[in-house]
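Thread: quick sanity check before group meeting

JM: Hey all, I'm pulling together slides for Thursday and realized we never actually wrote out the predicted structure for the chain we discussed last week. Dropping the sequence here so it's in one place. If anyone has concerns about the input, flag it before I start.
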Amino acid sequence: MKLAEALSERSDIRNRISQLESRLQMNARVQEGEKPSEDPEKLLAELNGLTDRLEYLITHINLTNAETISDGETLTALLARRDCLTLRVSAMRSFLNEASSLTSRGMRSEIKILSTVNVQEYRARTDLLSKELRELDVRIQGLNWTTELI
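JM (edit): ok, ran it. Output follows.
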């Protein structure tokens, strides 16, 4: 199994577990004399099977990420860098959207609001970070599709 397939299955299992949680809650209690629409015991058995499979996948995905080396770096390190770049780019874009918003003044005597940074310069820096993030993501995706799950 390729790493990408395991990641896809992990995502699917997480979605199914979330749906099972809702179904379990809907069938946790019934009015006296009524039956639940689904058997909670079967739902719990399905939940147990899915969480066992999820544990297996998470373990082997993490082991694979730690063992897979690309240009001297583990896949785990690349993933950490991608996560941090994503946070940095998001924070910068939010900051720059605020810094570049215009405040209209009705009269000359009203307080003038100015940006605290050179927005154009920081947008260029953020664009470079975004490019780095895209390239890193492509590299990670390529590894996901070529790496066998340990």
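AS: nice. The longest helix spans residues 40-67. The radius of gyration is 24 Å.
JM: adding both to the slides.
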